[in-house]
């Protein structure tokens, strides 16, 4: 009997990704945030994935009232939807506490009583101003149980980085490798104020919420290397990390007030259509050849991570005028 040609067996397709949008309500969302959210949303949705929304509000003294609602309104205006959330970090403190307990039990963290000034004084190596000096290891000999002797005294929990050279493969940038000792040394996972540090909260959340893909701006590569150490210490499976370039002003510095008002709320209030802004962002990622209005969902078939330029997007007033917006600069 003659056999009919058999159809190639489809390889099992990988599970759809779970992406996330994680605004920090310490300030208003601007065009730079919008570009990263758009990329993260498209990457998950283009492969039939889920999107989770989380508010990173543990930095509570700096939280702006109403910023959570405004961030949701900004995303909805852009046409970026989500399946779960918003999850709010300040409502998830017990999860972070149990992760800290796990790290304490494993002696992966130690109590550190150093003030910022102590660290400045002890550090001899020059350091990048925004990072501060590398932690010199003053308290690293303390066993975690010695925290009991520190009652009444403020202390932070610091993570022992151990073997300091850390690497991973970034979904956008490729191989990354960094000496974490030079890049800050042992880092804080629990602040002396009694609240979790960003690094710990984000790892616990992304793992608990089943996030498989994290797309964020490339100023967070150092954070990722630290977070990978936490994933390993907590026995959690890390997501795929992709770091995309920031949006900068004409002076090459990251988008800020000095570049005029590029807040999404202001752009919205000025009557600019979301499709106009999306067209500008899509053009900057080389998904469309000209700046013209387009909806987020119409970008799904056009999305390619690899066409995004490796250099930052330079946002100047002339570019904003093409979508009918004046930022007040230039
Ligand atoms: Zn210390």
Rounded Rg: 22 Å
Tell me the strand percentage band: 15-25%
* Quaternary: single chain
* Mean pLDDT score: 90
Q: How would the global form be characterised?
A: globular
Q: What's the N-to-C terminus distance?
A: 79 Å
Percent in helix = 25-40%
Number of strands: 12
The number of helical segments is: 9
What class would the helix/strand composition place it in? alpha/beta
Query: Which ligands are bound?
Result: zinc ion
Biggest sheet layout = 3 strands, parallel
Helix-strand sequence: EHEHEHEHEEEEHEHEEHHEH
Low-confidence stretches: 1-5
Q: Widest sheet: strand order?
A: 1-2-3
Characterization of this structure:
With 330 residues, this protein is of the alpha/beta class. It is built from nine helices and twelve strands. Helix 3 (93-105) crosses helix 5 (198-208) and helix 5 packs across helix 6 (221-233). The longest helix is centred in the first third of the chain and has 15 residues, at 31-45. The protein is globular and about 65 Å long. Bound molecules: zinc ion. Residues 112-114, 138-139 line the site of zinc ion. Zinc ion binds at residues 112-114, 138-139.
Key features of this structure:
three-stranded antiparallel beta sheet, 28% helix, 330 residues, 12 strands, 16% strand, binds zinc ion
């Amino acid at each position: 009997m003659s056999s009919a040609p058999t159809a190639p067996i489809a390889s099992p397709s990988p599970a759809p990704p779970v992406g996330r949008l994680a605004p920090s309500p310490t300030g208003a969302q601007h065009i730079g945030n919008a570009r990263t959210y758009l990329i993260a949303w498209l990457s998950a949705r283009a492969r039939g994935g889920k999107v989770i929304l989380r508010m990173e509000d543990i930095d509570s003294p700096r939280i702006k009232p109403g910023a959570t609602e405004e961030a949701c309104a900004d995303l909805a205006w852009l046409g970026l939807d989500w399946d779960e959330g918003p999850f709010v970090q300040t409502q998830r403190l017990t999860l972070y506490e149990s992760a800290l307990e796990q790290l304490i039990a494993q002696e992966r963290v130690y109590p550190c009583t150093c003030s910022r000034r102590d660290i400045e004084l002890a550090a001899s190596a020059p350091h990048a101003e925004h990072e501060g000096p590398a932690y010199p290891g003053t308290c690293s000999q303390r066993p975690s149980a010695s925290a009991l002797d520190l009652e009444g005294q403020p202390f932070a929990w610091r993570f022992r980085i151990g073997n300091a050279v850390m690497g991973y493969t970034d979904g956008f940038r490729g191989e990354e490798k960094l000496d974490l000792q030079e890049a800050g040394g042992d880092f804080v996972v629990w602040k002396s104020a009694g609240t979790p540090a960003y690094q710990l909260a984000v790892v616990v959340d992304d793992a608990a919420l089943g996030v498989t893909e994290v797309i964020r701006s490339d100023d967070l590569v150092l954070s990722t290397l630290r977070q990978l150490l936490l994933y390993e210490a907590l026995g959690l499976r890390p997501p795929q990390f992709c770091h995309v370039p920031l949006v900068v002003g004409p002076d090459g510095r990251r988008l800020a007030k000095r570049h005029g008002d590029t807040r999404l709320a202001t752009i919205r209030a000025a009557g600019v259509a979301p499709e106009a802004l999306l067209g500008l962002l899509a053009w900057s990622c080389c998904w469309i050849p000209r700046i013209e209005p387009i909806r987020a969902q119409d970008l799904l078939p056009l999305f390619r991570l690899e066409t995004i330029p490796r250099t930052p997007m330079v946002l100047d007033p002339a570019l904003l005028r093409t979508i009918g917006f004046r930022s007040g600069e230039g």
